[in-house]
Every structure is written in structure tokens, then in C-alpha cells.
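Example (one chain per record):
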Amino acid sequence: MKILVINSGSSSIKFQLLQLPEESLLCKGMADRIGANNSQLTYKTETEQIQETLTLNNHQKGLQKIAELLLDPKVGVIQDKSEIVAVGHRVVQGGSLFSETTLINDRVKQEIQAFADLAPLHNPPNYAGIIVAEQLFPEAQQVAVFDTAFHQSIPEVANQYALPKKLYTEHGIQVYGFHGVSHQYVSQQAIQYLGLKQSKIITLHLGNGCSMTAVKDGQSIDHSMGFTPTNGLIMGSRSGDIDQGIIFHLVDKLGYTLDEVNNLINKQSGLLGLTGYRDLRDIETQAGQGNRDCQLAIEMSAYRIKKYIGAYTAAMNGLDAIVFTAGIGENSQLMRASVCANLDYFGIKLDKEKNKQKTEDIQDISTADSAVKVLVIPTKEELQIARQAYQLLQSS
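Predicted structure:
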């Protein structure tokens, strides 16, 4: 069964075509800078690699170009669109309605649109990807995999805010959680790798967006992001946790509008606000050259993560493993070392030499006598989406 996975962002489309149940990758790529004159397209198969600059005015143009490449006589991997049995879509916000992978129909599309207010940067392009895929692949089943679904298991004690009850019961203001596809995949990989029947794991998805999940016996029981993806850890341009009174101070005393505050917290804060750089690679370089702002930003980021490790270890009454994943988690030796430093009270001991190594597989970077395993597991969100779509179609 060939399954096309589409991950539509506000100005990008990531895609992979996989063969299930073998889980073999037939091709992958990305259309980036959609809406600009210098859109970038990458397309890779086992034997071919294409990179080109072109104009993609919208997501429909981007997906049309991807479909053309899939069918191309020279570099294509299918001969007819009908070979694609399903298209799996990553949808960021599914509210409390969707706790599992779902076949897309008119009602599901309406709900995805309705949740756009909770994820304005993500749900609209997710929806656009679905509409275009329906047109381009009319014979394929369209499947939605929700980032929030994995976090539906968070209990009430952790998913409610101490606000008037009606805001929860009537307006759905609660912890939803994000990066669920990634957290679910790497936690499952960790449980299998360690051979645990009962497990207490903390997963760290560290990229431009950063989040942590407490995963007990394979289920999410707490998560650092909340009602929106702004909460929790320090991120590329998002502030993470702040005193909400700062918002009122900015508006009432400093003359900011609410739109300006929203933009400041989401697009001008985090690492960017602290250092002037959004990319941790640039910050690490500057820190190595003595830039104190960059050194402090790394220290602050690690300190925030440590606080969550302590909180989640308490919430689960123990800890078997910490998992690092995503761009920073998989690639930054410095951030992993900074996070794991001085956590020996919890039995967390990092092997400095193992931490320097880089592999594409699961890597144990803890010392032999570390009571808690420290793992680096590359996230494979597209594979997880394809797996869930395949399982849904097999059972329906």
C-alpha cells in the first residue's frame, strides 16, 4: 500500500511517499517559500535528487508540482495517481474531539476549520493541503493525524487551568499539547528499545518549537505546551512560560496593543529576543566566541528544561529514560550536555564521548552506571503518520 504523507505549513509542504507495511521510503521532499517568487523545491528518491527554484503561488501549485514529479517518466516513483491508496495529513489542532487518527469527511474538515482560532498558523494550511490533495488524488482515502490526539490522555488534574469552570466546559480552554506525533513516535521507540513493560519517560522535542512530555506506560500524562504552542520551554522566537501579568503591564503601562503583544511573545521573543539569533547553531558559535547574551540564552534554555525534568519526575514518581529528538535534540551536543549537567541526584549521568557521536539510529549517550537512560532518537513524524493511516485503513 502506497501512502503519501503531507505536512503543510504556512509557507511549506513536506512530503514522503512510503510503501506499507514494509515502511520503505520511495521518495521525499519539500516545497518551501510558497507564495514567493523564489520558492524552493527538493525531491529525492533512492537514485535521483532534484533541487530547483521556481514560483509556487499557493499550496495547490506546490502539490501539483509534487504530483508531477511523482508521475514523471524519468524521476517518478508511480505510473498512475491511483497507486496512492491514502494521503495522510498532519493536522496540528484537533481540540478535544479527535483522540485518534480519523478518515476525513465533510464534518472533519469543518472541525479542522473551526479549530483554526486555536492554531492560526497551522490549521489553515493543514486544511488547504487536504482540499488540494482531494482534487489531485480523488481515489485516495484522506486521513487526518492530529498532533493533539496523543495528549488526550492527560488527566484532568493536569489539563485544566485554575480559571472559572465554564471556560473549560463551555469554551474548551484547557491544555491541548502539541508535537504529539513526534512525542508518540520517540516514546514508543524508547519503550521498545529498552524492553520496558512499565515505563516512565520524558521526551524532549527540541527544534524551533520546543516541548516536553511526561509519558507513563506509553501515555501522555503532562505536556509543557498548553492551550497554544506558546507555553513552556524557551523556543526559537516564542517566549515559553512568562508571568501573564507582563501582558497587562505591556498594554496598560507601556502602550502595546494586544496584536503587538501577541507578535512580541510569539515572533520576537525566545532565543531571538535574548540574542538576536533564532538558530541555535548561530547562538552556539557566538557563545563559543565569548558572546555573553548567547551563553546566557543556552544556560536559560537548559535551566528551563531541567525544571520540567524535575516536575515530570515527581509527577510520575520516577524516571526510566530521557529522550532527545528533533533538530536541536538530535544535533546539539552542547544543549544535551547542558541539560544533563548536575542532575546526578536523579541518577542522570551523561557519557561525554558518546554525546559527541552522531548516528541515524537510536543512541544511548548515558554512562553505564546511569540510573536513567539518556537516549537520542531521530523523530520520524511522516513514518508515524503513515503507520497510523495504514492501521486505520486495515481496521476499517
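Caption: The first strand starts at residue 2 and ends at 8.
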